[in-house]
Design a protein that fits this description.
mainly alpha, 4 helices, 69% helix
Length: 81
């Protein structure tokens, strides 16, 4: 659910990176709260954080590249093996 919400938020702001990045930060605060309350497990939390770090620090070309990358949105993306 959280990854899908993040993706939909980003896609809604595909052409407005700065607004999208601000909204990612707002959503990030919500999942941090859910994590602190035990509603999100550590694996999902780390995956969300890895994605958010890249998204909020992305320049325009990276922003659009990440949003178009299907692998970026798959469960387990960037996990430490």
């Amino acid at each position: 659910m959280w990854i899908q919400d993040l993706r939909e938020l980003c896609e809604a702001n595909f052409e407005d990176r700065l607004t999208g990045q601000n909204q990612v930060e707002m959503l990030r605060n919500k999942w941090k709260e859910a994590f602190s309350e035990g509603d999100i497990d550590i694996v999902l939390f780390k995956g969300l954080e890895r994605r958010a770090d890249l998204l909020v620090n992305a320049e325009d070309s990276i922003w659009t590249s990440l949003l178009d990358d299907e692998d970026f949105w798959k469960a387990g993306w960037g996990s430490e093996v």
